[in-house]
Hints:
By secondary structure, the protein is α/β, with parallel strands linked by helices. 36% of the residues lie in helices and 19% in strands. β5 (85-88), α3 and β6 (131-134) form a beta-alpha-beta unit. α9 crosses α15 (462-471).
Amino acid sequence: xxxxxxxxxxxxxxxxxxxxxxxxxxxxxxxEKEILKGELGEIYTLLEKETIYLGLGERAKLNAEKLKKAxxxxxxxxxxxxxxxxxxxxxxFEGLCIAQTHKAVAEGLLQSEYRYDKFLSEKKPAPTMEEFxxxxxxxxxxxxxxxxxxxEKMLExxxxxxxxxxxxxxYMTPTKLAQSCVExxxxxxxxxxVFDRKQIEELGMKAFLAVARGSAQEPKFxxxxxxxxxxxxxxxxxxxxxxxxxxxxxxxxPPDGMATMHCDMGxxxxxxxVMMAVAKNKLKKNVVGVVAACENxxxxxxxxxxxxxxxxxxxxxxxxxxxxxxxxxxxxxxxxAATVIKPSQIVDVATLTGACVMALGSYTSGxxxxxxxxxxSIVKASERSGDAVWExxxxxxxxxxxxxxxxxxxxxxxxxxxxxxxxxxxEKFVEEIPWVHLDIAGTAYLxxxxxxxxxxxxxxxxxxxxxxxxxxxxxxxxxI
Length: 480
Ligand code: BES
Ligand code: ZN
Ligand code: ZN
């Protein structure tokens, strides 16, 4: 559905609130009998009057996330009743500017349209909604229109990420992932380079190649460049874990843990997704996405525990567990980013540790950093976007845990704090550049839908990355 500024058309959406006067006589009997109470996301559809009532809970407690949740439900209802057009006038709420309010409403509505049903014989019903009109005063119309367009384009990036991650590993191979990036991003002005095995060997990416060795699929190293501000020296590198499948290798995963391991390229998916969002919105920033894509499999040639491998940086790594493969591929991808791209900041995004799922579950990503100021910007972008993050402690006590006996580092560390030690392993390869690591093991892929996020791939943290790239440390409120 297209988000538009315009006049009342189609179904009228009327908002009502908990503990407030009823906005219409039609609603009154329902509220008096307490069948309707004005709870958040409560919906009452009166097709014969061309009206839909949407409850928003207590006015004073409303925020952007709540708006998204409520309007997500409204979007579903509009399509359920096969509406094609609807309109609403959204008031100004305390603590939210008009831009934030309209963006949240548009996002909620658009989130309701995502579906991944290509393998189902019986398709999910296609959305019928064509246009949603926001009634706004003339002086604000242009700004609101711009914001609506921005959200639409950002969500196209989120949905692109979801599609990449939902695709089964039998189709979404490293080669296919690279092809999808070329096909979807180059027409938008993103320069996409794909390095094959020979070129990866020439770059000396021995850690990445060690992981890729057990697979019949060719590894690919993908570099995506968006040059939105040619005058600026500033450049941000985004590095995504790109395991198109993680069986665990010889330290094989149990069946339950393995079933969804096509999501182990969730970091790569979100990097590709945010490149799309950035390019579609023509962001005035320089951004480089980097992905080392391969599979972690078993074969007579696969890497083994006890192996001591090398890395592009030259550090040697003792393999204590072949299932701790993400940090090996990322070590080379990060070192490449740090030394070849030479960015001013690096964010890496990875479905890196089961420990993160234990600690934070499905609602919050874990974060580790070498730079407090940059972390603050990430937290602000998180608050603005709805992609939640939580910073984990990092100090030399944890760093010491990474020391190997016969190699410089070990890839699997005993003693708990698995998410922190995995993050600090990566820190060794960023060459002191300001860096934040986001562990999205719990947030990239859901076993059950919640709020506006679907079962399967969520596209996290495309929205966070988008706002971080757009606003950096000035992630203050935008005001209209
Ligand atoms: N890809 C997994 C992490 C993961 C777990 C992602 C659950 C999504 C959901 C990663 O490669 C892994 O297996 N990590 C090991 C590391 C350990 C062996 C040190 C883990 O967390 O168990
Ligand atoms: Zn693994
Ligand atoms: Zn993995």
